Amino acid sequence: MRKISANYIFPVTGKPLKNGILIIDKEGMIVDLIDTGGNLKEEENLEFYNGILVPGFINAFCNFEELKTISAHLPEISVNELLSWAIFNGAKALKMDKTLGSFEKGKNPGINLIENFDFKKMRLTGNSTVRALV
């Protein structure tokens, strides 16, 4: 089992979890998603990342650049809504939402880390980057 945490986890089918924890098996399947209530305690074998964790994109780099552009020009749209459009709706459109598109027990969506996120405004920035963790 692998325990992964970040400043925020965006499950995309629910509210963002501050300092949440994802527990995945060796194949990357989600075993649990823990809401710590924002109170993360040091824990053995816990990997912590500075940024936000999101489910894998269908086309990560193309979609991510589009999200940054939308976020810059339409600040009234929350990052949670943008991520839901790009990730969950993308998986749903491809009829892959049973296994991909969100952080839910039993799914294997992959895990991306978004770095250089503006936590004060809860926005993507022009300097935000994405990389695959799982």
End-to-end separation:
13 Å
Question: From the coordinates shown, what is the CATH architecture?
Answer: Roll
Q: By CATH's scheme, which homologous superfamily applies?
A: Urease, subunit C, domain 1
Uncertain runs with pLDDT below 50, 5 residues or more? none
Whole-number average pLDDT? 93
- Our estimate of the beta-strand percent is 25-35%
Write up what this structure looks like.
The model has no long low-confidence stretch (mean pLDDT 93). By secondary structure, the chain is of the alpha+beta class. Strands 1, 2, 3, 4, 5, 6 and 7 form a 7-stranded mixed β-sheet that branches. The protein has helices at 60-73, 79-93; strands at 2-9, 17-18, 21-24, 30-34, 46-55, 111-115, 129-132. The chain is built from 2 helices and 7 strands. The chain has one domain (2-132): Urease, subunit C, domain 1 (Roll). Helices cover 22% and strands 28% of the residues.
Q: What descriptors fit this protein?
A:
alpha+beta, single chain, Urease, subunit C, domain 1, 134 residues
Short description:
With about 130 residues, the chain is an alpha+beta fold.
